[in-house]
Here is the input.
Amino acid sequence: MLLSSLSFYAQPGQMSGAKELAHLLQDIPTEIPELVSLVQGLAVHIFWAERYGLNLSEERKSEVNLRPLYPKLRRLLELDPAPLRQARPLERRLVCNCRDFSLLAASLLRHKGIPARARCGFGTYFMPGHFEDHWVCQYWHASQARWVMVDFQLDALQQQVLQPDFDPLDMPPGKFVLAGHAWQMCRADQADPDTFGIFQWHGWDFIRGNVIRDLLSLNKIEILPWDFWPGFGPELNTAGESEWVFWDRVAELTLQTDAHFKELRDFYQTTPRLHVPAEWLE
Here is the structure.
């Protein structure tokens, strides 16, 4: 199962394909510190922009709505036609969020044949006592035979502000809580659902939303943090027990990706309610 999983994540998916722009990725570095620097030189986080002294127009802010890699690359070239290895000035970087940093990273690694996957969940290092809505990226470290978790978003300024007590290039367990683990923690009364979320949005339905996003991402369908469609189902405070059991199963699958890879893929493919609108993949 591990070999099937690694083969799957080493290839671009519908969201991470570069199409006719694939030639731009030929000289992308494969060493993680260099790749982190490259991604950070291409993107600026929408919520951190003002801290960098960047005043974004509404048009520029709308760049966070670009889903797949391909339109992101096209927009990057519109802003600055320089090679991707060349860091852009702040005002010519693509406006992104944590999902985009993770998708960019996973996409670039996959184009080099390195297994990688964006993961959706919650960061513990943004606010004390709070699990912040967040995405990171995992890549397969071949010589160590393990998945390494990297926060590609945390540049020098963000690390100075947040003061993380870990290496963002090799995150230890517990610093980032996968969505499925967050669900299980709350189901076992080990955590308060209202401590998971962002801004005014939090609670059970928010956690479920991230469980869906992580399951889809594990199927190489990395949707936006605010994407919503009827497959989410009813609000959980009005849902019957069968709905809760369904999401228990989804959460479990997202935490056993390699051991039950075929089962995870089959579950997604045979569960129509989890399939996103086709136009999101274009």
Remarks:
- The CA atoms of residues 182 and 207 lie 7 Å apart.
- The two ends are 30 Å apart (CA to CA).
- The longest strand covers residues 131-141.
